[in-house]
């Protein structure tokens, strides 16, 4: 295969960039509220098992495909088999859909960070603040465009001078902020109106200890499906990102070791995010705070920060700065995947494709913002939820396409190309691949079945009734 004109300088640059893509809003926002909803330690155990099995298979597959073919997702699948070229287009469609709304969420984060940096931080804790902001006609668009400009600048700078350089700065900073706030959360103590004093360590128990009360087969399967869907958010698999990043990895990099480090980095960040958020919410809002779901970050946490008093403003600023770092590195990986694929598809320069993808991202992000006011609608989705424009894009990309792509990829690698094709790439330079046997069994027999179930349930084609 031809050598890429640009790439990561080495293993560390790849790991930090890939971890930057993996450690995003999904880890810090989605993981804690799913954990709170699904029984704390029960969700943790299930998620950890899935990371060590399915996550390992999906991540290894994507990265190995990218490095061996030296192509981005659009053409990499065609290199594996001409009849599978359509799979490359499906993977291209996922980041194209995600890009429509990820910068919008980044704009929300930027708005909150600005509020904590320029005011006393009391406004974000007020009822209706979040709804009032996202339904405003101009403000959400302005903050979205600022966040999008940061993203486009990093991608424009290229792989080594842009993505790798900024990942080396942002990822250590992100990890330090997560660790710092997590430790602080454990020191909290607050006496509620009921006279009961709750502590951060008690909240840690709520987070870590499995809640098996009322556990049924149906509930366990729902926990399993939630944890599996979280893998897609956390590891950036089945959306072409890791294939693209893998195509930039040099042949002398120990691929098995690098993917293990990404798994560890990503899982540690998710675990620490839960330790950072759940104890704090428990201390100030009690067990009721565990039921706030997706609104946990933008509605519940500001109330927690306000309850902390003067220090709450500093903690709030640090939290949204950290969340901004996570959102930026993930959004960069999504845009880079689109730019890299279009560079290969249309044989244009990075500068030209950055301009085109930037314009596409701009127009679609504005439409998503307008989806909360001028273009607002409510649409019943096949998974039973009701959503508007952002929810529709998220549903198609994450609940429909990603499980479907994982299903087809596992069939392609497990039964058409053969697991040995991936294993040989991981062991290219004689490196050990201790989990080669496990990989072969999972990609052939287990992953296709589970992905089929996840796809059928996520699309509402199969109802779990026990």
Written overview of the protein:
The chain is mainly α and 466 residues long. The protein has a single domain (11-458), classed as Hydantoin permease (Orthogonal Bundle). The chain is built from 18 helices and 4 strands. The chain has helices spanning 11-22, 25-37, 41-69, 73-80, 85-118, 129-134, 139-156, 159-186, 200-208, 217-235, 241-247, 255-285, 300-307, 310-346, 350-370, 389-417, 419-426, 436-458, and strands spanning 189-191, 197-199, 379-380, 386-387. It has a two-stranded antiparallel sheet. Strands 3-4 form a two-stranded antiparallel ribbon. Strand 1 and strand 2 (197-199) form a beta hairpin. Helix 14 (310-346) crosses helix 15. The radius of gyration is 21 Å and the shape is globular. The N and C termini lie far apart (51 Å). The relative contact order is 0.18. It is a multi-pass membrane protein. It is found in: Membrane. InterPro entries: Na/ntran_symport, SNS_sf, YocR/YhdH-like.
